[in-house]
Specification:
Blueprint: E1 2-7, H1 15-29, E2 33-38, H2 66-75, E3 78-84, H3 92-100, H4 102-106, E4 115-121, H5 131-144, E5 147-154, H6 168-175
Parallel strand pairs: 1-2, 1-3, 3-4, 4-5
Helix pairs in contact: 1-6
Bound molecules: flavin mononucleotide.
Length: about 180
């Protein structure tokens, strides 16, 4: 299986990256091909809603780093989104990628039937905080006919390294078993 992992934290030593690393390591150990994009370290804007997707030959007519990700989204069997909660929601760093999955739909590409996973975390000790990340992605999966096979939600992590005091990385590795 080919799995595209997209992260949305700007912290290379942060909690999301630690869990993404654990997922990637476990998925590769299972024999999956994993392609990873760290959206916060890329140049990816929002959707312009111009509806000209694929008319220039690339997914998006506004040619930024999303067009590097789009071909991998197309030919992957699975997509894993990993991000922290920012203001009870999806961070801007990865929202542009998620919004621009629209280009694959408008472009008439066959993208139904993929598997999906979510890895997320937040500072507050309240798991409902992460619904701001999981709810829109679950609904998007339903719309796209993607099978959301697993969600890792780790509350109570604020600073870099806090994830080590939780079972977040173990849960992220276990998520790989579901693909
Ligand atoms: C801009 C910003 C907004 C945040 N908003 C929330 C929030 O609404 N609720 C929450 O519990 N934590 C919030 N946090 C805390 C992060 O979710 C938390 O620090 C997380 O562990 C960061 O993950 P990372 O280490 O992968 O970057 C916010 C952090 C930042 C920088």
């Amino acid at each position: 299986m080919k799995i595209t992992v997209i992260t949305g934290s700007p912290r290379k030593n942060g909690n999301t990256f630690a869990m993404a690393d654990a997922f990637v390591k476990a998925a590769e150990a299972k024999g999956h091909e994993v392609v990873r994009f760290d959206a916060a370290m890329m140049h990816i804007g929002g959707c312009h809603a111009c509806m000209t997707c694929y008319q220039t030959g690339k997914a998006c007519s506004f040619d930024d780093d999303f067009n590097l990700i789009a071909p991998h989204l197309l030919d992957s069997d699975a997509v894993v989104y990993a991000m922290p909660v920012y203001w009870y929601s999806i961070p801007a760093q990865i929202k542009g990628v998620i919004d621009r999955v629209f280009s694959l739909v408008v472009g008439g590409k066959e993208i139904a039937g993929k598997k999906c996973g979510i890895i997320t975390c937040c500072e507050e000790h309240d798991a409902t905080v992460m619904e701001g990340v999981t709810m829109p992605l679950k609904r998007s999966c339903d719309l796209l006919k993607w099978d959301l096979v697993g969600t890792v939600c780790i509350p109570g992590v604020l600073n870099e390294g806090d994830i080590a005091h939780t079972d977040g990385c173990a849960q992220a590795a276990a998520l790989a078993e579901k693909f």
